[in-house]
Specification:
Layout (H helix, E strand, L loop, with lengths): L1 H49 L7 H19 L2
């Protein structure tokens, strides 16, 4: 019976070790992800500063509604 108990205790120790390793790996991934997110935000900020401000013209704003109306008129004309 002691061999079964020793196997169970070894299994518990292994599972505890695996849990701590998994927690450590998760923490490292989260730290890495945070660093990458911050770097991406900084890059976006620099890119947005460098990009010219684009104002859409009146015809660009009306393109989608006009296309929708033309499509509906085409469908209803049949």
């Amino acid at each position: 019976m002691s061999s079964v108990e020793s196997l169970i205790s070894m299994h518990r120790e292994d599972m505890a070790m695996l849990r701590t390793e998994a927690k450590q790996a998760r923490k490292e991934r989260q730290d890495s992800s945070r660093e990458m997110d911050l770097a991406l935000k900084e890059l976006r900020a620099r890119l947005s500063e460098d990009m010219p401000v684009v104002t859409s013209s009146f015809s660009v704003k009306l393109r989608a509604p006009i296309a929708l109306m033309v499509t509906l008129m085409g469908v209803f004309s049949f």
